[in-house]
Amino acid sequence: xxxxxxxxxxxxxxxxxxxxxxxxxxxxxxxxxxxxxxxxxxxxxxxxxxxxxxxxxxxxxxxxxxxxxxxxxxxxxxxxxxxxxxxxxxxxxxxxxxxxxxxxxxxxxxxxxxxxxxxxxxxxxxxxxxxxxxxxxxxxxxxxxxxxxxxxxxxxxxxxxxxxxxxxxxxxxxxxxxxxxxxxxxxxxxxxxxxxxxxxxxxxxxxxxxxxxxxxxxxxxxxxxxxxxxxxxxxxxxxxxxxxxxxxxxxxxxxxxxxxxxxxxxxxxxxxxxxxxxxxxxxxxxxxxxxxxxxxxxxxxxxxxxxxxxxxxxxxxxxxxxxxxxxxxxxxxxxxxxxxxxxxxxxxxxxxxxxxxxxxx
Length: 361
Description:
The protein is an alpha/beta fold and 361 residues long. It folds into 3 domains: 5-49, Orthogonal Bundle (434 Repressor (Amino-terminal Domain)); 58-159 and 295-320, Rossmann fold; 161-291 and 323-360, Rossmann fold (3-Layer(aba) Sandwich), CATH 3.40.50. The chain has 14 helices and 12 strands. It has helices spanning 5-12, 16-23, 32-45, 51-58, 74-88, 103-115, 131-138, 161-174, 190-205, 222-233, 247-259, 278-281, 293-308, 346-360; strands spanning 63-68, 93-98, 120-124, 141-145, 156-159, 180-184, 215-217, 241-244, 269-274, 287-290, 317-320, 324-325. Helix 1 (5-12) packs across helix 3 (32-45) and helix 8 (161-174) runs parallel beside helix 9. The model is unreliable at 55-59 and 335-344 (pLDDT under 50).
């Protein structure tokens, strides 16, 4: 049987109220010597607080619910880790429910959490938007982190996808590329829309005309990335660099380029997005933009805590920036790259040809 607070009070020779104040750091202080004696006795007896009873008395709970579509996603796991690490510092712990991309399961998960002593809910990397009505009914504070749907939603923490797209393409422009292909993800994803916008805006800022023929869709998979890259590389004027909107499609691009006998990165520079594990084990290693999952998880927990304390605005949305990790696939020299003479890249040859044509014109 679990040790009760009454047993601790009897062993310490003090009232239950005094034990309660000592164990809960009450605003009504207990003599320091008495408090330490109570804590020592509680530990010796193996006393553990009854969180359910405490929550009922205080009408507050130390439990935060996390609902996700796929707990096995490498992004979700890092987001959840960030959430847990941040909430632990404030005495909260988490309950996670996986819904397998099923809106019915999602609604059931919300109802289940609302029926228990859940203080708030964080939706981690979810696509469905059916949550809003259920949340309004159950009056739970909630936050969306890395939402996958394009519609804006209050209290969201998302990656700054537009910034990431600009970061990747600007790097290729700085390396001398002017004809840059882009392999986008699925069209109904927020990340696809924003990364494409980043691609377009940075081209415009550098005086490079947007060419729709240089944009293909790979739906975030290796195989479709391979097909999309082949279409780009078979154009009459193929790109000298390709930005793929995730690392899986970038890997497909590497395979397509290698199958065509191209030398990476002399003939083709490639940049991915996400910084998945494959980015460091592919050959060549992949230059990529990080998806700041752990940081988004921490920020979502911070936002939920602010909501619970009535410190956040209704329209608050937080964007977290990733960073560019330069590796071998783009041709840029890094501190680990040995400098050596190399033949002119396709970008160099293409720019030289354009310059010659301009001179003739």
